[in-house]
Please model this.
Amino acid sequence: MPKGSHHDFITFDDILKFWAAERPNTVAVEQEDRVTTFAETELLTRQLIALLQAHGVGKGDRIAWLGKNSDRHCLLYMAAARMGAVMVPIGWRLAPPEIAYILSDTEAKLVFAGEEFVDTALQLAGEIPSKPGVIEASMAVRDASAMEPAEYEPPHQDDPVLQLYTSGTTGNPKGVQLSNANLFILRNLGNEAGVEWNQFDPDDCVYFAMPCAHIGGTGLINNSIANGVRCRIDAEFTPIGALEAIEADATHMFIVPAALQMVVQHPKASDTDFSKLKYLMYGAAPMPLELLKEAVKTMPNAGFVQLYGMTETTGTVTALAPEDHSTDGNKRMRSAGRAVPGAEIQIRGPDNTELPLGEIGEVCIKSPSNTAGYWKLAEATASTIDAEGWVHTGDAAIMDEDGFVYIQDRIKDMIISGGENVYPAEVESAIYGHPAIAEVAVIGIPSEKWGEEVKACIVCKPGHDLDPNEVIAYTRERVAAFKAPKTIDIIPEMPRNASGKILRRQLRDPYWEGQERQVS
Model:
């Protein structure tokens, strides 16, 4: 179990009461010069409940956040979760029509906005049928601090308190409903099992810079509050901000591969003191092995933990533990690890039956952290969660005899070339080690001969040039010839969605324009 005080609660209400009593003076959230202790957080969230009630917000109502990462958002989120309202953080990088869609879909009663997003929130709120009220977040916290703490009835642990919108690359996003129990139960089961990296010391600090509109961001505030430790918040990720936090006091952080690459390749990384960083957790996109090896060498004292999951599973359901990482690389570093305590993983075929070990199929997950379903989308829920409660991820993978899961790619991104299945992530990993290549994305394009053929879209490192034929030859040394790209595009930057994932469709579309069908 963790050192010092611990608990097995699974609601924000119980957790905040516990830590306010056990560690009243420990900082819960801090950003810039704003510091809020656990005792202050427990009181202020009850005062914020009073503010929400004064604006007609009750159990089951939606409230939205439009802004960058903020301690004020965290306080509003915890207040909503204590009373059973549902917080909906909206990605600030989204275009106005996308923001308007989410606001309209949620039927939010209130929109809390960061100072620089108030005008956008006011404009969009006036254009949608529900006409939600708009409150600037710092004013909300200021006004609440002058109110009497509210009387309220906490929600049932399985009632939704958080609604995150999946960042799909096509179609409208879907609202994933997550409950208090979804947020915290796997943490408790991991502690019961003695998972070392799951546990915290009282003076630890979680660094929160990934977007709060995604589970990889919001999950950090859940993690720090559940464990009674300080959460250091940056409004958004920057490599210099991450390096400064690591050198100052961050002991735990989560980062996506693209951001990790920026950190390890930043000039300041060479003279940064990484000794305080205990665990670096990473995930949300395929991690090229060469980048991972570089990161392990850069931060030799940190325990690296790969996390795999999705919004619908409240994040992490498999983990690759620190002991499975090494500076020279190994087979397991290409995996997403094994199921965490409490979660079950199966690899299933098209007939929804489990496949033998070593065969490729769809990752299916059964976990107490699984969402109960999408907001107002019964058919989409039924197509994702089967009758036995298994979430079908859409990810293609194999599982080895030790239970390690090797993600190959999204099933929909699979390329079928001459009848052979090619998974872009495998090819990307082979290409990435080339010394002149900063980023790579592999797509399938039309081919009269093969149906589809493999193309690599590449961003060069600054000051480097590439010979496409050299890259093709380099790749053929590492994967089968049919998997190697037939052609190479050199591009200035990768198109990405709000969560940082590469938009393969945007790379593919120009090649498929006018085609009767897209083969893959």
